[in-house]
Specification:
With 148 residues, the protein is α+β, with helices and mostly antiparallel strands. Helix content is 16%, strand content 38%. The protein starts with a helix and ends with a helix.
């Protein structure tokens, strides 16, 4: 995956007018926020293997398996969607429009489920929001400018 991240997040060496190619990732500041918007080309999203799910409604946690206290409202998302930064703050990448990704802070109550692959979020994006489950680390690398 590191090779893919590098390929998807760097600017081509040739930027002359005759050999110019579009960058696979465009990163833009969002006014009033500490995060940036990452936009990928279709080819870059395909190479990285971006996959998404839609956030469901908050529901009482199931009593089976490791989870928050039974009955505690939580939003359950795949644990693969959760990114931990260097300070331990947790994030997911939302998809506000096709091929566009914005990091949003979440609060993980616990990780569990039958196979330990579910994150129970005490703070989550609204129900109906698409979030990234595969390609999260590549998007973070692009947002931070890794490979530039």
């Amino acid at each position: 995956m590191i090779t893919l991240a590098s390929a998807a997040c760097t600017t081509p060496a040739s930027n002359t007018s005759s050999g110019h190619k579009d960058s696979p990732a465009t990163v833009e500041a969002i006014p009033g926020k500490d995060v940036k918007k990452v936009t990928l080309t279709e080819q870059a999203a395909h190479r990285v293997g971006i996959a998404t799910v839609t956030v469901g409604a908050t529901q009482p946690a199931a009593p089976a398996g490791p989870s928050p206290s039974p009955g505690t409202p939580a939003t359950v998302v795949p644990y693969s969607a959760v990114l931990y930064d260097a300070n331990g703050v947790t994030w997911v990448y939302t998809v506000p429009q096709p091929l566009t990704y914005v990091r949003e802070k979440v609060v993980v109550a616990t990780v569990g489920g039958a196979r330990g692959t579910d994150a129970f979020l005490a703070q989550a994006p609204p129900a109906g929001t698409s979030i990234v489950t595969i390609g999260v680390i590549e998007l973070w690398g692009a947002e931070l400018g890794v490979g530039k």
